[in-house]
């Protein structure tokens, strides 16, 4: 179910009979046709067990199910929106950044310590994004929110990308991430660059970076 970017802060989705999508609750701006919006008590895909896991991981953002026949325009809080199309790979993104996503995508939750070991856990603390993140896998589209617009940086083998953890939005593909530090004596005495922590992503995929260090 593709999204059409209306402008930097609004997207339009086509809803067709027999298919459903999920969106953040209250994100509908306008619609045409015969479309219904139902609160999704399970917070998306995966049933009751998956819902409990997301709540334990603090990755349970209120969602609604969108079904019917028509078109729906989505936006939330005036945030910039980036549409990401997945072709079988996995997107890693915080639940509160999800604006809407295709109902065919498989939703899950991942412990960040499994990517980068202990430093992966430290990354969660530094970014303020916690120790878990939401995953979406399969063929479909996802609309995510960010501050100040988003750029997509490709990650290719042997060419790691370094990102300010506060500017990180999401990534997809076969990508490893770890937190690196640049702490030196200047940082210790308050004369550092202010970029003491960096998120290093390597492998094959892409990372999305917002033009701000502000969380949603």
Automatic annotation (TrEMBL):
It comes from the Bacteria. It holds the Pfam family AIM24. InterPro entries: AIM24, AIM24_sf, Trp_RNA-bd_attenuator-like_dom. This is AIM24 family protein. It comes from Streptomyces lunaelactis.
């Amino acid at each position: 179910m593709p999204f059409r970017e209306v402008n930097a802060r609004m997207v339009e989705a086509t809803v067709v009979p027999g298919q459903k999508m999920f969106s953040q609750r209250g994100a509908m701006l306008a619609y045409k046709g015969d479309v219904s919006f139902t609160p999704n008590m399970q917070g998306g895909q995966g049933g009751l067990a998956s819902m409990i896991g997301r709540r334990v991981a603090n990755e349970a953002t209120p969602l609604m199910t969108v079904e019917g026949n028509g078109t729906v325009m989505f936006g939330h809080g005036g945030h910039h929106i980036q549409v990401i199309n997945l072709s079988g790979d996995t997107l890693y993104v915080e639940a509160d950044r999800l604006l809407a996503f295709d109902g065919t995508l498989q939703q899950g939750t991942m412990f960040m310590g499994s990517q980068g070991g202990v430093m992966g856990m430290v990354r969660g603390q530094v970014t303020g994004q916690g120790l878990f993140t939401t995953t979406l896998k399969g063929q479909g589209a996802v609309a995510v929110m960010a501050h100040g617009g988003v750029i997509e940086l490709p990650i290719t083998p042997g060419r790691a990308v370094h990102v300010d953890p506060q500017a990180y939005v999401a990534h997809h593909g076969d990508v490893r991430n770890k937190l690196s530090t640049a702490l030196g004596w200047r940082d210790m005495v308050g004369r550092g660059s202010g970029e003491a922590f960096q998120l290093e992503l390597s492998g094959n995929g892409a990372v999305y970076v917002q033009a701000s260090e502000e969380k949603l």
